[in-house]
Amino acid sequence: MPYALLIHGGADTRQPESYTDEEAANMRAALKAALLAGQTVLTNHGSALDAVEAAVCVLEDSGCFDAGRGAYLNVDGGHDLDSAIMDGRTGAAGAAAHLHTVKNPVRLARRVMEATSHVLLVAEGAERFAQDEGLEFVGADYFVESGTNVPEVNRPTGTVGAVALDTAGNLAAATSTGGTRERRAGRVGDTPIIGAGTYADNAVGAVSGTGEGEFFLRAVLAHDIAARVEYGGVLLAQAARTALSAKLTARGGKGGVIALDPAGVPVVVFNTPTMARGIVTAANTDPAVALFDEAFPV
Ligand code: ASP
């Protein structure tokens, strides 16, 4: 079975002109590094789960995106990180929300999935579990935005996510975020809610969303896309387009999704001026990345 890995670095309402050359170059480099990390897993016949986790970790560590090191501040000047991962083969899922000091939220989501009987852990309990699992922790000075310091330029943009199809034919999805700007402390968005921002089912597809989480939550958007395929018999690309238009754009929401169908056909839809994205497949082994309205294989 040929592999595929599709990633995003967030749908963004900023116009392309507002990105500095340095900022765009850093984002492109981070997307490429994430694709290579996931591709290494997939070409060695590793699992789609390992591939999405590896790719998202690179994006979390890059500081270029609103996840991990680049997480946005809340109105009180704190960080609240959320992540989820889902296994399309088994339907297993794990998520962690309202984290403050866990370096890689996606790793914790994976541990929740594999080492507990739960789906979602939050706040102190989640951090205590991360300690038990020996995950890495960071202090407030690790983050690009810290205290009241939001850089004027080269500021992180966008939630991150990945969907993968491995050589065994299994799908997985993972998403990680630092939340939206100007959110209240304690706010949790769609990213760690299975079915809202993240969903995977081998029979249907794998989906990772980005954008105004409240809209994704109310529409249960990732699962809505999957349900259109499962019950409506439409292609995943059509399902994603229709869902985005009916449940996001028509309701005044901004965002986008990436998705892969069971054959590895990639889908990217967004209604924002920009969306950072990247893809690598068995047929196209050179990673391709894009930020703006530019040449991209999908
Ligand atoms: N969906 C994320 C959230 O609402 C934010 C984003 O994707 O930009 O937390």
How does this structure look, described?
By secondary structure, this protein is of the alpha+beta class. It has a single domain (4-290), classed as 4-Layer Sandwich (Glutamine Phosphoribosylpyrophosphate, subunit 1, domain 1). It is built from seven helices and twelve strands. The protein has an eight-stranded mixed beta sheet. Strands 7-8-9-10 form a four-stranded antiparallel beta sheet. The radius of gyration is 17 Å and the shape is globular. The mean pLDDT is 96. Bound molecules: aspartic acid. Aspartic acid binds next to β8.
Report the mean per-residue pLDDT as an integer.
Answer: 96
> Pairing-aware structural class of the strands and helices?
alpha+beta
Helix/strand order, N-terminal first: EHHEEHEHEEEEHHHEEEE
Percent of residues in beta strands?
15-25%
CATH class: Alpha Beta
Low-confidence stretches: none
Report the C-alpha radius of gyration, rounded. Answer: 17 Å
Domains (count)? 1
